[in-house]
Amino acid sequence: MTTPVDTSNWTSWALQDRQLGLPVLGLRHPPGWTAQGDVSWNALNNESPEHHWYQLVDGERNAMVQGWPRFDFTWPGGAPGQPNGHGRAYLPPESPDRLLGTLLPQLLGQGAGQPTRFEVQPLPDWAQRFHVGPESITPGVDYTGLYAVVDAPVQGLPRRYEIVGFHYSVTNQAAFSTITNHGLLVMVLSANANGYDDVRATLWAINDGTLPNPAWNAAVNRIGQNNAAAFDQQFAQARWASFQAEQAGIARVGQAAADLRNTQAGNAQAAFNAMMAPPPAPAGGPGVSAQEAWRNELGGVTAVEDPTSSQGNTKYVSSSTAVTWQNEKGEVIETDDVNLDPNVNSSTTWKVVSRYGE
């Protein structure tokens, strides 16, 4: 990417981890540049207990090389952006370039305005750039190298950034669901745009000459493995406790469901029996049995005394009309008009038919 730079008179600097008593990494920088950084450990964050950062600054040319703390995320489990309590933040998985775009305002720093340029392309030699050997490549993890160029105003001055990084993503079956852990490790090189080309080779020489300490990496990996084993045991215990609670809950729910089904079945049977039961026979009502009255009700008819029958025979008329008239010929008039008198101007005699029970 750049032309070679003479680093023979550069100053050596190491980022020290006070917790482990080992240097995290070492680098060389030109005279006049300042170096600073820090290593933090949080024992409660057993998924990602360690984070470190460093930066090299040339105050004269306002140039900078920054090694950012690793951005670690997990999904699902909580609201996006909220910590999960184990060293990661909740964030849905997305493409590496989109994740870089999400983090861009943080990487550009305070005072940065809206970028006027943001170009992202693959970085095939990411492992070489970050000095990641084959022994450090974890099977089952997807890695993607990224290289981006960004132009953005900072406090009114145009500034250029070059960002190199790699994205990782791994999906595993956790205790209760599928969990995706993913993240991004980035280095940011920047300077004022009008002098960037003059200092670019120096920025890249610092970045490419930064070497991780294998002994420190090995110590961190052992801690990570121990944490993973403890984490797996914790999840196994949680799975067993959850299984027992689930079985007890299933039994309780099953019994409640059975009771509900029995109650519903009993209620349904009672309602059906009540609907099918014939109504009681009207007290003192002649001529129609209870079963026959029930059949008449279901059929939308009602039994009446036939006034033309000397034996008091029964006939059936509509049960939905208010008044039924019948003449000596057996003809019937059914009406809802209670004021109607069919005897007016009639050559036959009409009588109101008596319904049983009325």
From TrEMBL:
Name of the featured protein: Uncharacterized protein
Species in which this protein is naturally found: Micropruina glycogenica
